[in-house]
Amino acid sequence: MLKLLALVGFTLSLSQFSFSAEKLVLTGSSTVAPLLGEIAKRFEKSHNDVRVDVQTGGSSRGIADTRQGVADIGMVSRALKPSEKDLTAFTVAMDGIGMIVHSSNPIEKLTQEQILNIYKGKVKSWKNVGGPDKSVTVVNKAEGRSTLELFLKHFQLKPYEIKASVIIGDNEQGIKTVAGNPNAIGYVSIGAAEFSISQGVNIKLLPLNGIVSSTENVRNGRFPLSRPLNLVAKGEVSGLKKQFIEFAKSSEVSDLVRDQYFVSVEQ
Amino acid sequence: MFPLSSENLLVASLKFCAGVCSGIVFLIILFVANEAIPSFTSPGFTAFFTDEAWYPTYNQFNLVPMIIGTLCLASGAVLLSAPLGILSALFCHFYGKGLTLKIYRRIIELLAGVPSVVFGFWGLMVLVPMIAKIAQPGASLLAGVLILFIMILPTMALTADVALEQVPKSLIQGSYALGYTKTRTLLSVVLPSAKSGLAVGFILQVGRALGETMAVLMVTGNVVQIPESVFNPIRALTSNIALEMAYAVDHHRSALFFTGLILILVVLALVLLSHSLQRTADGR
Amino acid sequence: MGDKLFSILVHLSVLVIALVFFAIVGDVAIKGFTAIQWDFIFTEPSRSGREGGVGPILVSTFLLLGICLSIVISLGLGTAIYLNEFTFHKSKFSKIIELSLDILAGVPSIVFGLFGNVLFCKILGLGFSILSGGLTLACMALPLFIRTAQSSLRGIPSEYRSGSKALGFSKATTLIKVTLPVAIPGIIAGLILSIGRAMAETAALIFTSGYVDRMPSSLLDSGRALSVHIYDLSMNISGGDLNAYRSAFLLIIGLLFINFSASTIIKKTLRVEN
Q: Taking the model in full, what pTM does it have?
C-alpha cells in the first residue's frame, strides 16, 4: 500500500514538470480515430510543445465528451443530428458505404427492392435474386452505429424490420465475416473494401442504384450512400483548437486521408 | 502514542489490504447501479423482461434472450472445460514426467496469457468458416462455446494444478497401502480431498466465462434471439455492452448499465450458491 | 484394466489441449514470424500501425504491467495472508471479503473499463493514462491472484505453524520464515495467471490507458497496450492483419520469457531455502 502511495506521489510530482506542453484531447469514432492519430503526429512535428492525444470509443462518446469538456474536440463519423446543434462540425473527410458479397458469389448487381427484401427476410435464398440455391447470410451492424443509421435511412427501414443472421461491430469484422462466408451479404466503408479487394481478400463491392461503389463516385458526389467524417467542438473555436482543426482540413494532410482510404474534402 | 506491537501493526495493515480489495467490489456495484438507476423509471424494470424485443433506439428493451444466450454459452464452456482441466491437472501430478511435463506446463501457462483478441481472431478466421460449412451462418452459439472453452481451460487447469499440489502425500500413500488402484486413488481420495480448491477454480472460470467480452463478440453472431440449436447465432450480455456502449445515449446507455448490473447479480447468485454448497460440504 | 482406460483418458485430454495450443499459437507464430525484424520491436508505428513497429506500445505495456503487478503483489498478498493466517475461516469479515473477491472475478472486463474510466480518469483526475490503466488492471487481476495464493497457503500443513509456535516464534516470524517460503511456487503461479490476464486484456484498457501510440514520457501519459493494438489492427484497420500477427507473436514470446524467468526464480529460491 505504501508502495502505491509513493508511486502516485512520485508520478504526480513528475507530471508537474512534464506538463508544461499545451495539450489537446480528441475522443470519439473508431472509424475516424486512426486518421486523426496520424494527423495529430504530423501536427506535433510542426508545433513544438504541443501534444495531441487521440482516444477512440465511438461517435456518441465524442459528442458526450466534447459537451462535458472532457475532450477538446470530438470525432463523429456522421452528420450532426438536430439535437446536437449546440456543437459545431468541421468535415475533414468523406466516406461511402457499399454493399459487399463474397467474391465467389455470381451476383453482379442487386436492385434497391432486392436488397430491401433480403434484409427484411423476404428473400431467404440467393436463388430468388438470380443466384445459386443457397440461403442468404445477412450481415448487419449493431444498434446505434452510424453506419447502420445511414443504411436504415437510405433504405427507409426500421431496425426491427431487419432479419439479420450475423450482427457485427467494427468495419473490419464485417469484411472478415463476409470474406469467410460465401453466402453472406453486408455493408461496409467503401474505401476499406476497395483496399481489401486490392489485397486479395475474397469480397466484392456491388453497385448501388446502378452506381458503381467506388471512392471516386463518393468524391464526385454521385454515390447515394455517403457520410461526412467530422470534428466537433463546443462554443467558439479559437487558439490551438482552431489551428488544429484548420490543419486537419487542409491540403497538408490529404495524403494521410487517402492513406486511410477515405475521400479528402480539401478545396 | 498507542502501544502498537509489530504484530498488531502487521495484522492491521493486512486487514487494510483485505478491506481495500473488497471495497473495490462495492465501488463497482455502486457505480454500475448508479448509472443503471435511470432505467428503472424509464423504460421501467419490467420492460427488460416483457418488451417484445431489444431495439433500444425504438424503446424496446427485452433482455431475456440475451440472458438465456449468456447462460447457455457459459454453462456449455464450463461443462466442457472443467473435466478436461481436472484431467490435465491429474496428468501434471500423476502421469507426466520429465521434459514432457515441463513443456506441457509451459503450454498451459502460455495459453492462459494469449489475449482474448487472438482467440477471437482465430475463431473468426478459422473456426467460424469451418462451422459455416456444416450449418449457416457459422457464427453461432457453438463457436462461442468452443472459443470460450479454450479460453478458460488453462485457468481451470492451472488452478486445479495448484489444488492437487495441496493434497497431502501421506493420504495418497495410505490409499496405495490399502491396495487401491491408481484410478481409484485419484477418483476417491485425491479429487475429494482437493474439492475446495477445485471449487474455487470452477467459480473463477464461471466468472471469466460470463464476463468475457471481445472473443465472444467476434464469433457468436450477436443476433438477439433465444437459440433453438447450437448453430443459431446468439448475443451475450457482455457483447451487448461492448457493441452498443460507445454509441449509446440516455435510456439506451442506462439500459446497458442495467445489463451490466444483471451480469453482476448472476455472478453474485452463483457465488452465493457455491459458497453455501462448500459450507454444507465442509460441515459434514 | 480400469487403470489403463483412465490413463488413456488423461493422456487423450492432454493431447487435445496441446493440439488446440498448437492450432492457435502455431497459426499466430507462422504468420507473425514471417518477415519479422528486429526494428519492429524498436520503431514507432506508422500509417496507423499498418507499417512500422511497436516500440512505444511495448514500453506502455511494460509500464502498465509494472503498475498492475506492484499493486497486485502488495495488496493481494496482504489479503491472502490475512484471510489464511490471521483470521478464523468462519469469521464474518473474511466471509464478506471472499464473497466480494469471487464477485470481482466475474465482473465483465468492459465494466471494469467503464468503472476505471470514471474512478481513475475522471474522479481521481488521472486522465487517460498508463497509471489509470494499470490500476484498472490491478482491480481485475486481484481476485485471480488472491485466490490462487490463498489456496497455496491453505495447503501448508498446520504442523509447520504449530511447530514454529512451539519454538517460540511470533506469528510474523512464522509467516516470513516458514509459511511464505513454502507457499512461493503457488504464489508465483498466481502471479503468472495475473500477468496473463493483464497482458490479455483489451476492453478495460481502451477506456483507461487509451489509444495514443506515441512513446509515453510519464506514467500520466496515455499509452496503447499491445492487446489494444492487436484489436485495433485486426478489427478496425484494413490491411493491419500482418502487423496484428507480428504483435501477437511478440506478445506470446514475451509471455514465454516471463514464464521462464518466473520458474527460474522459483527454483533458485527453493534451493536457497533448502
A: 0.88
